[in-house]
Amino acid sequence: MSIRTARVAEEIQKVLGERLVRGLRDPVPGFVTIRSVEVTSDFAHARVFVSVFGSDADKQGAIDSLRAQRGILRKELGGKVRLRLTPELTFVLDDSGERAARVHALLDAVKGGKPAPELDEQAAASPKGKKPATRSKKPAKRAGSEDDDKDGDDVDGIGGGEGG
Question: Model confidence over 94-126: pLDDT tens digits?
Fold first, then answer.
């Protein structure tokens, strides 16, 4: 990503964030944060990563609301950011904060010596007496090994074996 692309992405994030603070025509459910923006090198498209604090219904409602008001947000963006083209906005739900919190909780559980909650649920869900599937202990064959060369050809297939 070039410096100019990064600056434009940062400016788009700033303008959209300010607009969310002032409010939109239709209220957006949940607490919405613009996490980051990725802009294509020709500035024709921008992917806006949005984090929503709330239930799953709030998350989907916020994304639907932002997608419905995409034109208004794009118009305001065109007025505030001087570009030859105003980028098409695509809103994407960003759940990286939730994933980070889950990983942190798992690490805290392991650090404290307690089994992770998800692992306990998986163990309880598995049928008694059955072992979970494991990987085979046989090493995988490599391409070009002697076992592969059944017809006596060279490994690369060019030579003719005997008399070639």
Answer: 888 788 888 988 888 888 776 656 544 444 444
Model confidence at 1: pLDDT above 70: yes
Residue-range definition of the domain harbouring residue 104: 98-124
Query: Does the structure show a pLDDT above 70 at 130?
Result: no
Tell me: do 87 and 102 sit in the same domain. no
Cα 36 to Cα 14: distance, rounded to the nearest angstrom? 10
User: CB-side exposure of 62: number of CA atoms within 13 Å?
Assistant: 24
- How far is the C-alpha of 76 from the C-alpha of 84, rounded, in Å? 15
Q: Is the pLDDT of residue 27 over 80?
A: no
Among 15, 65, 71, CA closest to 39: 15
Q: How many domains does the chain have?
A: 2
Q: How much is the pTM?
A: 0.61
- Which residues fall within 8 angstroms of residue 67, CB to CB, at 6 or more apart? 91
